[in-house]
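As a warm-up, study this chain.
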Amino acid sequence: MAQQVHTDVSGLVWKVLVKPGDQVKSGDVLFILEVMKTEVPYEADMDGEITAVHITEDTGMVQEDTLAIEIS
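Now compare it with the structure written out below.
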């Protein structure tokens, strides 16, 4: 079963820690948003392979519910 990771809030893409082809485990941090000067990490909810990364550190601001990462 695939997982799509969406942002919960608007924020600045601070760090993207994965790329397509990477293997991740549940709980691994995938990317970090900066929200009101606070780092908000987003973690994988499942073990799997990163199939797509839709954000980069050059993306800048993203809105709430932006599709960021896909895992299969």
